[in-house]
Amino acid sequence: MLRTTGLTKTFGGLTAVDDVDFELAADELCSLIGPNGAGKTTFFNLLTGALEPTEGTIEFRGGAGSEGASADGAGAYRDVTAAAPHETASMGIHRSYQITNVFPTSSVFENVRIAAQAHGDDATTFWRNVSRYDEYEREARAILERVGLTEHADAPASSLSHGEKRQLEVGIALAGDPGRLLLDEPNAGVSSESVGDIIDLIEDVATDHAVLLVEHNMDIVMNVSDRVVVLNQGELIADGPPAAVRGDETVQRAYLGGYESRSRHAEGDVSADDSEPADDSEPPDGDEAATDADDEAATDGDDGSETAEGSA
Which helix (H) or strand (E) holds 158? Predict the structure, then answer.
């Protein structure tokens, strides 16, 4: 449904994404992991049109009814390398962001209803009473029920807890019924009490959407993923089932050493001395640093402006 060939992004002498071949299937939850600065957010920005690749291609294949659809309902791949964020969103590629991005003074319901209308046929119709847009109201209420926010529908978004705002962001991304969801650290900053709700939501959404997930919590990654892709210094160094990636020596050295040591110690397989993580083995949770921080600055706008074009 979504694939890249030789995808590369450079910023001056820095290569943030380096010759990446990748494909996201229609029925999988794929996690994208790697150290801070590995290029994960840059990769998301390339897929959604927020950044233009230096080299390589991005191709998209729609479902039944799309241009070039075959007899079995699968559309033909088409080149979307130069597509803008609003164009990728209209194709059904929606994303969330590392930094919470909602309309704080609008109600929870209005946040989702506006997103639904933005992806509908009335996105630029301004002279009609919003109460007449029944289809968008129904869609918004169904989404709020799915993400567990029905009881907060009339409350301002600013009144939600951080975890609930993350749930709202997923709801906004679901508006317009996209085929592909790109979730950039949906658990970032979420309290331990709320992480379970976000995990349940991600697993539920993955039952009828292709999901590409960036996540630093390896327990979550290993438990929910059908497939795991690892980036390191912009290069794809592993791609496969969670168990295979977990046991990959290259991945161990680049990223998972500390996670593996703690896992074995928790299972009683090693001594306390052996359980200490190696230096730089696992990055802290949170926004990507170094490379990706510079990458975001190169988008000529913050996440808010991208959200308005691509997800709301």
Answer: none
